[in-house]
Each structure stands twice: as structure tokens, then as C-alpha cells.
Amino acid sequence: MNTFLATTCIVTGALLAGGCATKKYVQNTTAPIQAKVNQVGEQTGRNGQQIEDTRSQLKQVDEKSQSGISAAQERAGAADQHAGVADQHAGEAKTSADQANRLGEKNTQELNSLRSVVANIDDFKLQSTVAVPFGFNKYELSADAKAELDKVAMDVKSGKRFFIAVEGYTDSTGSKAYNEGLSRRRADRVVEYLVAKHDIPIYRIHMIGLGQEKPVDVAHSRDARAKNRRVEVKVFNADQVTASLQGTATTSADREVAKQ
Fold first, then answer.
1. Mean per-residue pLDDT for 50-66?
2. Residue 187 pLDDT
């Protein structure tokens, strides 16, 4: 009996001793593994946080990029609009420049013609004079006045070197300032009729309003005042002088040939 108990105790003690040894072995074996697992978990957690931070940063960068792209697109659109406006202004400027050039060329031609007239002013001789009558305080052309101007236009159309002097006058009724204005309006009507109706070049016409100056009749009667209410149209021509000079030159040349 005692022997059995002793044996049992010995076996039980051995098992217990073996069990403790096995548990301790397991603990010693798994502890490093668990530590490694914990380390890996911690590292994984840090990596996950870094990934989230990176995603957040990427999102911010993407938002900034989108904002920058939108702003760039807006600026590009505005630049396109400005470019379109600039092109339009450039086109308008070119058109204005072309018109200015054409007008400048026309003015130059007319100025050259006028200079030619002035340079040869001594060659021009009075060809004809017409007095166009006007009613009291009137500046509209009557049928008789238009008929007289039609004759003037027919006479000058065949000429090449001529100019027309248009002088407006009034009677002595009224103030000097008013009469000067009225005389200019009368002269304007004559010039307007010659240019619009008969295509007389405007640069060939010289107009002035002299009011009550230079009366043709100094009397104070009704007839005298009617004579003074007029526009004098004077035609100066140099064609006859030119023809005369050409004839003189031809005669001189013939004489030189005869001498030979």
C-alpha cells in the first residue's frame, strides 16, 4: 500500500514536473513570436496612419491642382476674349487707317490741284459774271436763279483750267452781323447747287459772304435794295491763255524752223 502510494506520488510528481516544464517551454518559445507579432501590428498601424496621411495630402494636392486648373482655364478664357477684342480693335484700326489713307490721298490730290491753280493764278482771266437774285431775307434759290446757274455749269464743264468765285451779298436792311450770315447762306446755296446738281468739284469753287458790302446801287429805293440782294458767280478760266501760249510757242518753233 505504501509502496503504491509512493509510486503514485512519484509518477504524479514527474507528470507535474513535466507539465510545468512543457508550459515554460511553450511560453519561452511563443513569447518572442508574440513580441514580433505585436511589433508587426504596431508597424502596420503606423503604416496605415501614414497611408491615410498620404491620401489626405494627395487629396489636398488634387484639390489645389483642380483649383489651379480651373483658374488657369478661366485666365485662358479671359485671354482668348482679350485676344478676340484685340483682334477686333486691330481690324477696326486697320479699316480706319485705310479710310484715312484714302481720304489723305484724295485731299492730297485736291490740294495739288489747288496749288496748281494758285501757282498759275496770274494765268486765269475773268470769263463771265452772273448775278443770282434773292428775295428779301431769303436764301433759297428761285427757278430763275437755278436757270442762271445751269448756264454757268454748262459753260465751265468743257474747260480744264477754271475756278468759280461765289460772292454773297445783301441789302443794307438789318444789322451788319445778320447780313453777313445771310450772305454766307445765300452763297452756300449756290455752291451746293453747282456741286450737287452739276458735279462741279468743290475745290474749284471759292465762296465768301460779304453782307451789305459792295452794293451795286447805293440808292435807298426798293429797286436798289433788290439789286443788292444777290450772289455774284464769277468764272475764271486759263484755257484761253494756255491755248494762246501754245500758239505763241508753235509760232516761235515755226520761225526757228524757217530760219534753218
1. 74
2. 96
**51: phi > 0 → left, psi -120 to 50 → alpha, else beta; which?**
alpha
Helix, coil or strand: residue 67: helix
Element (H, E) at 252: helix 239-259
- The structural domains of the chain, with segments of one domain joined by +, span 77-119, 122-246
Can you tell me the distance from the alpha carbon of 124 to that of 66, in angstroms, rounded to the nearest whole number? Answer: 83
The distance of Cα 36 from the centroid of its chain, to the nearest Å, equals 83
CATH number for the domain formed by residue range(s) 122-246: 3.30.1330.60
46/53 Cα distance (integer angstroms):
10
Residue 146: other Cβ atoms inside 10 A: 13
Residue 88's φ and ψ, nearest 5 degrees, are: -65, -45
Decide: pTM greater than 0.70.
no
For residue 7, the Cα-to-chain-centroid distance in whole angstroms is: 125
d(CA 119, CA 111): 12
Q: In 3-state terms, what secondary structure has residue 169?
A: coil
CA distance 52 to 147: 103
Report d(CA 192, CA 100) in Å as an integer. 25
Query: What pLDDT sits at residue 146?
Result: 94
162-168/205-209 β-pairing: parallel
- Name residue 231's beta-bridge partners: 132, 168
Angle in degrees, 0-180, between the axes of helices 176-198 and 143-157, rounded to the nearest 10: 60
The amino acid at 140: E
